[in-house]
From TrEMBL:
Domain of life: Bacteria
Protein name (record): Transporter
PANTHER family, per the entry: MAJOR FACILITATOR SUPERFAMILY (MFS) PROFILE DOMAIN-CONTAINING PROTEIN (PTHR23542:SF1), PTHR23542
Sample GO molecular function, one term: transmembrane transporter activity
InterPro entries documented for this protein: MFS, MFS_trans_sf
Pfam families: MFS_1
TM spans (from-to): 64-82, 88-109, 121-144, 201-230, 263-285, 291-313, 325-344, 350-374, 386-409, 415-436
Organism from which the protein derives: Streptomyces cyaneogriseus subsp. noncyanogenus
Amino acid sequence: MPQPTFARSPAPAPLLTVTADTLVAADFGPRASARTRAGAGRPPGPYRRLLAVPGARAFTAGNLTARLPMGMFSVSAVVMIAGTRDSYALAGAVTATGLAATALVAPWTARLIDRHGQARVALPATLIAVLGSLALLLCVRHGAPDWTLFAAYAATATTPNTGGMSRARWAHLLKGDAAALHTANSFEQAADELCFMLGPVLAVALCGALFPEAGTLVGAFLLLAGMLLFTAQRATEPPPARARHTAGTRQVPPLRAPGMPPLLAVCLATGGVFGSMEVVTIAFADAHGHGGAAGVILALQAAGSCAAGLLYGAVRPARPAQARLPWCVAAMTALLVLPALAAAGTGSLALLGATLLLAGMATAPTMVTTMTLVQRRTPKGRLNEGMTLAVTGLLGGIACGSAAGGWAADHLSAAAGYGVPVAAAAVALVITLLPLPGSRAHH
């Protein structure tokens, strides 16, 4: 399969070169080199150079379109089910079932994608997931028995990990260019934050302005349309693992690869931060009589993470990812103390939103660094599976964090509940500091 080529000097050039008094964009391709040598205008930034890779804009547009519904489906299902069945307990149980099914099915879907190619597996898997969403919509609309809601939503577990597939394409296109890959991973993390920031807002707006099923219907359409566009970009698709390895070659599964178990444990603990923060913030806003402001406050946290992710990707780290991870997690833990202090102090929602904006700025660098290490420690040809295992760890942590945050808010107080994300981040920090086997060999 043809692959874009880049002009390189004997030593790989970084995306950014820091000098004593300026920050200069480094060369990234022959056209950028010619423009820089000619002195014609300001050199393009790292993200413009990243999206100048042939085919990058097309697969990114498709992937972002397919990824936006990931922030819509759960909220849409809760609004749709609770609005028609008058039961938040049923809505929560249905979405929890879908989350559990995804945790079981997603790694198998990713393994098939690695083995047979993105287009051959991701599109049929998406069709099954879209049919599951439409079945859920029809069951709710026509008053079907409750058990049908669980079955229909469980079928959506075949939804491919769109973010993982996009990261796999960047890893294929930017092979050997660590600086460019760092920028790509930061871009993808910022995209994740943006989609999970805009998705719930769009879902609630559609369900409220049109009809309860509108969020699910639009989400299913965007998922299918985006995946059709993404999988149509065959020139940037990584070759299947079967084509890259000889028959009979046995590999260590990603779950057992050296250094992977502690990384997945970090993902689990970080997911606990996300899950507990969401529930506790909703409870805190509701306790102060401003339940409708919870979405805006959580959006501030996602906005801080998105901005920090883009900034983090614009500079070239001076230390290896393994050495950076404890510092990133330590910063996340320290900044998460700020919302806890704000909630326990004045109880001001404005102050809480400001502290969540600051706290969010540490989550993206943590996730970018974690995902970079996951990529490096995943066996060759199994990248989608490795990335999906990391996402599965995050989902499991979100579920546990939601339960712990909800318990704290009910039995202690909403303000005390902010201790749960701090505790989860502290657990992640301890894991990164433990001298676990295989961590030294994988920088």
